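hiii, so i know i said id send this last week but things got crazy w the move. better late than never?? heres the sequnce for the chain we talked about at the cafe, plus the structure i predicted for it. fair warning i was half asleep when i ran it
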Amino acid sequence: MKMKKVIAMLAACTLLAASFVGCAKDTSKDNTDTSTPTTAPAETDSTDATDDAATDEIVTLKWITVGGGMPTNYDAWQKNINEYLGEKIGVNVEMEVVSWGDWDNRRNIIVNSGESFDILFTDGNKYNAASKLGAFLDITELAKTAAPELYSYIPEAYWNAVKVDGKVFAVPTYKDSSATNYFVYDTEKATKYNVNFVGIKNFSELTDGLMAMKDGEGVTPFILANDGAGVVTANYDNMGAGFRPLGVRFDDQSRKVVSIFEQEDILTELDTLHQWYEAGIINADAPTLAESPSYRMVYNAQGWSGAAKTTWGPNMGVEATADQFGDTIVSNDTVRGSLNAVYASSKYPEKCLQLLQLVNLDTKVRDAFYYGLEGENFNYTADGKIEKINNDWNMAGYTQGTFFTVSQLADADFNQWDEVKELNANAKPSVLLGFTFDTTTVETELAQCNAVFDKYKSVLLTGAQEPRELVAQMREELNAAGFETLITEAQAQVDAAFAQ
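okay and structure toks below
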């Protein structure tokens, strides 16, 4: 089947899923609270076949994921959830919640050292490479038999979007189909300095306003951690390769594979970031700062505007507003924003999938992972909604499972999923939707080029050095590592896939 037909099918599935599915992952690293739509199932008996598990041996599964670190009340939470999981499916879970700043290093160690685990959170940046390395189990057929209700619940387009060499190596989280970026800001401070974030097309339009905030408050208004302003490259499709410098602009009908950081639209934004860094708008320690503080006067996040009221503002401790920045885009990469893979050598792969089925489809379990421990982190109201006691729960909700079985917050006076549905329905499809770069023949070059980019990305994406000279220097090293080979191979595959 030619890729144009595949794109049409995937786009149609995206529109269908938009009636259920949420927006893309929140790259601000916040655990975005979400309301449950009217179509969400109540607590389900999705594991009837294993309800006699209590009479069998209870196995312990290790699940490694990312978030704000281990919750302070983890032991009590674990005891509570394991009693339920043991009764339902004969499973106990041992969570390792790695902090954001340690995640990339920890994940690399896990995958490359052969460290034992059962379930690992992953995403588009690392999923493809780890699957090819053999770290993850091929669940193409097993998911259908071990977790049939979960398999049916997740749209087929999602399963197709996570295939690597025609095989499924992870369970896609049923929430993301598109990505929308926002400027999130302290409403009171923006009003005080008359800064307008509505309709902003590029960073430079905010320079004067951010300078006013900086001078007036005497603090850095746009704090970045060492992962930088990733939104800079949001308009480019990385083809599932997990290598940011290589891709195709999402709306380029010629589908030309380019060196992303050498494109003028990217360089212009990098110029502004450098200007901000030099002016003190961006914090001086950005290239080495592992995690951003909870309060930032202004920052960029991916999600939907309603999250400013339900999550971003509460996490900042102020009233916040979010204004959209750029287009809403749907691509393979946006679907791969949240995945959970089973370790290739797990002793209990069926149990892993049964656990993921329960986390997705059982509201009691879903709430426990999302909100924490009942009575300490939240309480249920008489009508089954959630009253949060605090914001101390450190697990990141988007990493776990669907949002559509999460109970709604009692104090929400709107259903933020209505906005998410609209965003998905109106998302612009990438010209490469349905295409994944097969890197089998260029794995050496890809690994070498990734190593080069890792040396530059923090400095480049935080504005800490003059970008044009830095990009030129990086390109020289990339060329020596085989960058041109990557471009040539990627272009040949794109051309072949989209041939008339």
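btw The first helix runs from residue 3 to 17. thought thatd interest u
miss u guys!!
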